[in-house]
Amino acid sequence: MAPVSEKNGARIEPLTPREVRGAAKRASKFVQKLTPSTLDAEFPSELRLVARIDNLAALYGRWWHRFFERLDWRGGIDSAQKLFEKQLPTCPDAESAAKDWTATHQNLLRAASIARFLGSDETLFHAEFPFSWRRNNRSVFEGVVDSAMINRKFGQCLLVDWKTNNVSSSDAEIFRARYRPQLAAYWKVVGEITGLEVEAGLFSTALGHLLPYSKDELQSEWHRLEQLPPVQLENEIRPDAPDDF
Questions:
Q1: Less crowded by CB within 10 Å, the N or C end of the chain?
Q2: What's the CATH code, domain 31-237?
Q3: For residue 164, which of 87, 220, 243, 84 has the smallest C-alpha distance?
Q4: CA atoms of 34 and 235, how far apart (whole Å)
Q5: Each residue of 162-215: pLDDT tens digit?
Q6: Domain locations in the chain?
Q7: Cα 225 to Cα 165: distance, rounded to the nearest angstrom
Q8: Contact between residue 124 and residue 149 where contact means Cβ atoms under 8 Å apart
Q9: Going by DSSP bridges, is the β-strand pair 156-163/197-204 parallel, antiparallel, or unpaired?
Q10: Distance (Å, rounded) from C-alpha 211 to C-alpha 16?
Q11: 171 with 178: CB under 8 angstroms?
Q12: Do 201 and 161 form a contact (C-beta atoms < 8 A)?
């Protein structure tokens, strides 16, 4: 039998075997947290790096995410270029970053969806946009979206997930399919929380352009996902990729 412990002078009796069995039976009734983000929002970036310090791809991905966190969307491409040059010396793979930036900077502010939000003075830009949404009595979605552009005047929101995987243009559709469950979860959650019309897409630094998902595509994907058991659902919305943060 477990020893009796004390707290603030009060005796704390150990659980009996019957109480332990009862607690185990009730465990399934607790709320389950699901997160489309690979790491929970409450973990500081320092812990994220320590956890995977030997993974160059992870460090490279994190470097890009920090770059986009600091990006001044109103500053134009010249401002973005200066920021890139300033941050480049800290990149764990400067050669790859320079190559990806050559592709990315040409389309970063010209992508149709991004340009539309940039064209309105009402748009607010949020980096590392946190969310928490109670799906039902048994589960809650929590996580962080890389970038959210919100225009409440027009009731619209654009979610952008930065991906730094080394992908070729011939594999772009496979790439989109791989992350569709994750983006569908973001789309659903942010739409429910904000009440806005939400758009979502991946921006691939290797390809240098935005890969958007249509509303019908995301709606259909979410309908499929919500039929899945919780464990399978979480596995699908958290794709195992080196740059997922």
A1: N
A2: 3.90.320
A3: 243
A4: 10
A5: 999 999 999 999 999 999 999 999 999 999 999 999 999 999 999 999 999 999
A6: 31-237
A7: 24
A8: yes
A9: parallel
A10: 56
A11: no
A12: yes
DSSP string, 111-157: SHHHHHHHT-TT-EEEEEEEEEEE-SSSEEEEEEEEEEEEETTTTEE
Closest CA to 126 of 193, 219, 77, 50: 193
> Closest Cα partner for 201 from 221, 222, 219, 186?
186
DSSP class of 39: S
Q: Is there a contact between 157 and 150 (Cβ–Cβ < 8 Å)?
A: yes
Contact 114, 103 (CB under 8 A): no
pTM as predicted: 0.78
Residues 74-85 as b/e (b if ≥16 CB within 10 A, e otherwise) read eeeeeebeebbe
